[in-house]
Amino acid sequence: MPRHLLKVIILGDSGVGKTPLMNQYVHKNFSEEYNTTIGADFVTKELQIDDRLVTLQIWDTAGQERFQSVGAAFFPGADCCVLVYDVTAMRSFDTLDNWHEEFIKHVRNPQDPDKFPCILLGNKIDINGGNSRVVSEKQAKEWCAAKGNILYFETSAKGDHNVDAAFLSIARTAMTNEYEQNIYVEVPEAVPETEQQGDGCVS
Predict the structure, then answer these.
(1) What is the model's pLDDT at position 71?
(2) Rounded to two decimals, what is the model's pTM?
(3) Any idea which fold 3-196 has?
(4) Cα(31)–Cα(54) distance, rounded to whole angstroms?
(5) In whole angstroms, how large is the CA radius of gyration of the chain?
(6) H helices of 28-147, where?
(7) Could you state, in order of their start, the residue ranges of all structural domains in the chain?
(8) Is the separation of the CB atoms in 155 and 21 below 8 Å?
(9) Strand partners, 61
(10) Of 82, 50, 60, whose CA–CA distance to 167 is shortest?
(11) Measured between alpha carbons, how far is 138 from 171 in angstroms, rounded to an integer?
């Protein structure tokens, strides 16, 4: 059975819960204490989608401005971009445009930058029973619609709410993009030296 390696980049402001989401999905644990990500780090998760074995390579990138240029070096070759904001912090929602634009600027040769597969996660819906949220689901879905109707999930890394469903959708989206890249990006095979030494005529 062929195995597919899919590269996923997680972006968003510092403190929105990128690392906790990733660790909840891969390791099924949650901690209130995480060190700030410097540059980027990644974990892998093996899963089966339909009849395909998939290795999901999930890159956790720096949310702090002084480290963002380092993280951007890991964008090329991505199959899917995951944007994360904190539903209780409006600024983390307001900066989504910047994150999205920065990703598209650095990702390697997307066939259509406006249609590069992204998914939005609104995290921390568990805080104060949901009473602390300042970004409504309607606002988030309107943002997604403006970006080409990208998928949206509301999650809680702490409560493990919707985390598996979100990452399964991320994997499926990344796999679709991988196949499209395979169709449109072909690497020519090397021509044996004996075939290169012709007289220039085409038969």
Answers:
(1) 55
(2) 0.81
(3) Rossmann fold (3.40.50)
(4) 27
(5) 20
(6) 68-72, 90-94, 96-106, 137-146
(7) 3-196
(8) yes
(9) 40
(10) 82
(11) 25
**Measuring CA to CA, how many Å separate 62 from each of 23, 99, 103, 108, 198?**
15, 11, 13, 19, 53
CA–CA gap between residue 67 and residue 37 (Å, rounded):
8
Contacts of 120 (CB under 8 A, 6+ apart): 82, 83, 84, 85, 96, 140, 143, 144, 150, 151, 152, 153
Distances (CA, A) of 195 to 187, 190, 191, 199: 18, 10, 7, 10
Q: Find all residues with CB under 8 Å of 56, minimum gap 6, and list them.
A: 6, 8, 44, 45, 46, 47, 167, 170, 171, 174
Helix (H, G, I), strand (E, B) or coil at 63: coil
| Rounded-to-integer distance, Cα 20 and Cα 31, Å | 7
Whether residue 63 has pLDDT greater than 90: no
79 backbone φψ class: left, alpha, beta (φ>0; ψ -120 to 50): alpha
